[in-house]
Design goal:
4 copies of one chain form a homotetramer.
Chain A (H helix, E strand, L loop, with lengths): L13 E6 L13 H18 L4 H8 L1 E12 L8 E11 L3 E10 L2 E14 L12 H7 L1
Antiparallel strand pairs in A: 1-3, 2-5, 3-4, 4-5
Amino acid sequence: MPAAAPTADTSAPFSLPVRVYWEDTDAGGIVYYANYLKLFERARTEWLRTLGFSQQRLLDGERVMFVVTDATLRCIAPARLDDRLDLTVRVSRAGGASLEFAQQAQRDGTLLAAAEIRVGCVQRGDDTLRASRIPAAILRALV
Amino acid sequence: MPAAAPTADTSAPFSLPVRVYWEDTDAGGIVYYANYLKLFERARTEWLRTLGFSQQRLLDGERVMFVVTDATLRCIAPARLDDRLDLTVRVSRAGGASLEFAQQAQRDGTLLAAAEIRVGCVQRGDDTLRASRIPAAILRALV
Amino acid sequence: MPAAAPTADTSAPFSLPVRVYWEDTDAGGIVYYANYLKLFERARTEWLRTLGFSQQRLLDGERVMFVVTDATLRCIAPARLDDRLDLTVRVSRAGGASLEFAQQAQRDGTLLAAAEIRVGCVQRGDDTLRASRIPAAILRALV
Amino acid sequence: MPAAAPTADTSAPFSLPVRVYWEDTDAGGIVYYANYLKLFERARTEWLRTLGFSQQRLLDGERVMFVVTDATLRCIAPARLDDRLDLTVRVSRAGGASLEFAQQAQRDGTLLAAAEIRVGCVQRGDDTLRASRIPAAILRALV
């Protein structure tokens, strides 16, 4: 599993600054690893908002939502309470029904965690979470 | 990323039953994916306890703790409020300073999510989280 | 606010044992206070289940759900990783559209946290969360 | 418990804007009530930062930390995914070893949730969480 170590992504088109709060930490004194997935999602959500899309409106209007189908997380160095993290978002692949993202958490340019996230577009209320086409307006905004 | 679909692991030596509560779900009406990492960790903790080890005692006594360094999560089918999940734990590799686990979340034998988790052993209070040898008693208990 | 200190409730009709995991703790080395609300809810959910009710079925069938409208939490002594907590549930008031609970978290009979929780019954999908009558079968089961 | 309904606090000296993400919601489609305690804490932390104090530095330097001893939460109207909330912080009482806060979550001036939070100052590593004097510099900054 430990392949070549990733390096800080300096060409990322979008970055969200966040602060580490008590809620993000655990008794080890560091950010609890599962919480990186929450932090990375905040960044994707804000990235989507900069493109003009709100997920609640996608739910209510287009009746679609994005669900994470695959996530790979690598924790490289610990983050602590009060740290300021920069969370980057880069689209690594855009398909008709799914998107893949490469994301990083950096502190002052030092890479602390990296993730690859694959999200699929599904119909709201479809219990099987069957793949659905990503709204064309979103795909157009990506290019 | 979507390789061969995993199948339900029926030979797993340890399984923890858990229930899905409101806290585990999100506005999509299903278990929030990041929370699977929490659920899977509960199972590893209880598995470790069946071997006779408490992580708080490891922290206080041996001054070591396990930290997750790599996690890969695949969400296959949604879990909902009140579902009963069985969380399996299988050690896929045991090194001197790290362990790798293959875990699954099943509902009535149907595979809903799978994860591979790599944990490293580190000294408590070591800000660099440098690898430390896993206590011999634990390694002995694994064989 | 610091009124008379509550004492461990020894007559509680329902108690759920839970274990403290990493996810429940924070960098202070203790259970993060907000997480007590999650733990207490697990106990209410299991108490409701012993009465024969599943909240997912209430959502799908009766189209109602319970939402917490008021919560008061008192943290008395810290809980730590690997602690085993007993979470008690006592109905302190049952109205036509709301229920009030007194709950405690104990460790070996020592009171660590106490809460009073008021939940209201609301129609699913009603954006205003207007009060709705509690299904009669539930009220009957309470007496 | 349902006393006079609180009204939106328009004179609050500090307000933090936050966005509602998937992680904050539950299967009811609204912000999960326990998560308001997390959101309110983010606001207190940022308020403390505007006074010049970092909690990690308090932990490392003064060896003290603030722990929540009492929390009262009232949920008035639901917040949803993508809502922008303004979280206010008002110190309602400053003692030698504890602080009390009145906080609100508003959306476009509408009050959605309110909380009263009491935090105590304790020595780091003191398992009994015995009250400790709040560092004088903080008390001075409050007046």
